[in-house]
Write a structure and sequence with these properties.
This protein is 65% helix and 0% strand. It is built from four helices and no strands. InterPro entries: DUF4287.
């Protein structure tokens, strides 16, 4: 059974990711692109959490946003120079 965050919690988690993890969202998306070819969101979240020692909540929020943006063909944010 997939667990998803409410839109409000999801937005709060995304806003805190850079300060909590030390990486911007685009860096996490790059890690997912370069990581193993897992098809299920739960597998991707578990891999991200284990590989980078993230909490499951943050890993899940990153994966959910990654999938959402890919499905809607939204551009991935890049860090400003």
């Amino acid at each position: 059974m997939a667990v998803t965050h409410s839109p409000e919690i999801h937005a709060q988690l995304l806003a805190r990711i850079p300060s909590v993890t030390g990486r911007d969202l685009h860096e996490w998306f790059d890690a997912l692109d370069k990581g193993p070819s897992l098809t299920r969101c739960s597998e991707r979240s578990a891999w991200l959490a284990d590989e980078y020692e993230l909490s499951r909540g943050y890993a899940q929020a990153i994966v959910q946003e990654y999938v959402r943006r890919h499905r809607s063909h939204q551009p991935i944010p890049r860090q400003r120079s």
